[in-house]
Backbone:
């Protein structure tokens, strides 16, 4: 039988989110029913609820930073039991057959991964996210939350954590490497924590010095304002890796000038507008301009275990569901330190 649960949804593009009810599917043989406790608010929720990236599927229940407790399991489930602490991230399924899926890179599934929301599942039904009381997910796309992480600070790791962890690991951030994190927000603050825990020397590049004290406390050794033109002169040729977490278009040419020879500029922010690039900026110094999208299932569990080992939860502001629309505006105004998390008991 399906289950009716309360949720917050955007009824149409750019419309305020409102309380409603949705149907969750019957728990199948390999499914887990999760009683959601906390859901993070990601900037991508705003992009999608407001048709910023592409035309969305409405009504839309956002939310892909989900933690909770297993309430029921299907007859074939082997990885989880009732009462387990679990999480759900940005995807809930993939083809499971292509080269990338077999390699644990489900986020790059050749047939397209199925997002936790604003997507159609394999039955052609809309997928609804974590701004809701419960969710049903295949056990293979569900994560174990280590005991060392509380569920509230663990929720943003399911997007902000893996989105920064994956490229930092892939491009070998670690001892002897100088890493710059562009943007000190929901993604950026986790990038600082993770890069520092990996052993890199971390610099924050932010519009102003307003959050400098926070950045240094979270693991940065240096903090510069990008609004100061002298920053780009002083830091020219400094970094092995620059990880950009901002969703606004940047002047890529000036940022690429901050890389060493063979340095890499990694983009995980998703601007709604196209950006310009002079190719000589990458040709001079054999530099790499790359992007990265979340992480696969094995790597996401690896990230959770890493964060638990190093005590890396997100810095959060816990809110009630009635505050979601205000939180969206505050995210756009950069008025959050550093991730809003919804207490789903208030839905």
Residues:
């Amino acid at each position: 039988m399906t289950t009716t649960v309360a949720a917050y949804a955007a009824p149409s593009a750019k419309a305020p989110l409102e309380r409603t009810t949705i149907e969750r599917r019957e728990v199948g043989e390999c499914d887990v029913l999760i009683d959601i406790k906390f859901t993070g608010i990601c900037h991508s929720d705003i992009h999608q609820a407001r048709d910023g990236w592409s035309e969305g599927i409405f009504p839309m229940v956002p939310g892909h930073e989900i933690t909770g407790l297993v309430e029921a399991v299907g007859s074939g489930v082997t990885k989880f039991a009732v009462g387990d602490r679990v999480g759900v991230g940005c995807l809930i399924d993939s083809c499971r057959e292509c080269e990338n899926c077999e390699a644990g890179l489900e986020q790059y599934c050749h047939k397209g991964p199925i997002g936790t929301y604003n997507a159609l599942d394999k039955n052609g039904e809309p997928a609804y996210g974590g701004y809701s009381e419960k969710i049903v997910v295949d056990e293979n796309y569900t994560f174990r939350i280590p005991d060392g992480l509380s569920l509230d600070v663990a929720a943003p790791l399911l997007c902000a954590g893996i989105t920064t962890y994956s490229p930092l690991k892939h491009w070998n951030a670690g001892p002897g490497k100088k890493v710059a994190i562009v943007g000190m927000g929901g993604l950026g603050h986790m990038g600082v924590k993770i890069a520092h825990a990996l052993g890199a020397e971390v610099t924050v590049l932010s519009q102003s010095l307003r959050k400098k004290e926070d950045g240094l406390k979270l693991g940065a050794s240096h903090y510069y304002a990008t609004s100061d033109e002298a920053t780009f002169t002083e830091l020219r040729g400094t970094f092995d890796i620059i990880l950009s977490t901002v969703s606004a278009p940047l002047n890529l040419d000036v940022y690429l000038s901050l890389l060493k020879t063979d340095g890499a500029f990694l983009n995980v922010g998703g601007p709604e507008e196209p950006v310009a690039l002079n190719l000589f900026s990458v040709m001079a110094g054999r530099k790499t301009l790359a992007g990265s999208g979340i992480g696969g299932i094995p790597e996401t569990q690896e990230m959770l275990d890493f964060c638990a080992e190093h005590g890396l939860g997100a810095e959060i502001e816990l809110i009630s569901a009635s505050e979601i629309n205000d939180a969206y505006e505050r995210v756009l105004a950069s008025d959050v330190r550093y991730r809003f998390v919804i207490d789903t008991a208030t839905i």
